[in-house]
Amino acid sequence: MRKILDDPEIDVLSAEEAGVLEDVVEDGETFAENARKKASFVAAQTGHFAVADDSGLCIKALGGLPGVFSARWAGEGASAEALVQLTLEKLADTSLGQREAYFESAAVLCAPDGRHWAFSGIIEGEIAEEPRGEPRLKLPYDVIFVPKGFSKTFAEMSNEEKNSLSHRGLAFRQLKEYIKTINRA
User: Fold this and answer.
1) How does pLDDT run across 42-88, given as a tens digit for each residue?
2) How far apart are CA 84 and CA 167, in angstroms?
3) Helix ranges (DSSP H) in the chain
4) Both ends of the chain: CA-CA distance in Å?
5) In this model, does residue 40 exceed pLDDT 90?
6) Integer Cα distance of 178 and 17 in angstroms
């Protein structure tokens, strides 16, 4: 997030750096609801604008699952390996051409007065038959997600390459442009 929002016109602090140490329960039905809930909480606690995001993997052959349950798909506190293993097990009888999926990210900017603006990014792709690449911390599905038009997984890409086309990168670039218009106003 910090790398994508890097701009001299924008100051970015983590919630922890701003003094907010509590986690917000992510019980929304959409990525945007979860992101708004987190951003609203931080804005209310700090009295400053706050940004939060929520994202996940949606697999068409599984009716959109894991979706908003992406982090808890294999149970609360499950390891990255368990999340990937469960996903591959659920798709074991699904042929490569039927493994369509997309990553979705919602980034929400909240003002201390409750106003909010939402930005979203979606990237289409498919699920590989086995994990490939170097896993990234808290991004378990990168090892099995192959973006449309590419032959390698997110985990096989550099951070720069992934950020240039990822769902989160798309949402945060929209957010960044919006913040810059506010700063100029």
Assistant:
1) 999 999 999 999 999 999 999 999 999 999 999 999 999 999 999 99
2) 19
3) 31-46, 80-90, 159-165, 167-184
4) 24
5) yes
6) 23
Residue 176 tokens, joined: 């960044």
pLDDT at 37 over 90: yes
Q: Cis bond leading into 66, ω under 30°?
A: yes
Are 89 and 75 in contact, with CB atoms under 8 Å apart?
A: no
CB distance 105 to 155 below 8 Å: no
Fold (topology level) of 31-184: Maf protein (3.90.950)
> Residue 47 has which token pair?
């009295």
Residues belonging to the chain: 185
Q: Supply the pTM of this predicted model.
A: 0.89
| Class of residue 156 by CB neighbours under 10 A (exposed 0-12, middle 13-18, buried 19+) | middle
The DSSP-derived string for 72-86 is TTTSTT--HHHHHHH
Whether 50 contacts 117, CB under 8 Å: no
Q: What angle do CA 3, 8, 10 make, to 5 degrees?
A: 70
Q: What is the residue type of 82?
A: A
Tell me the one-letter amino acid at 160: E
Q: Which of 74, 41, 71 is nearest to 56 (CA)?
A: 71
pLDDT for 61: 96
Which residues are catalytic, by number? 54
State the DSSP code for 156. Answer: G
Distances (CA, A) of 20 to 26, 118, 157, 182: 16, 22, 33, 24
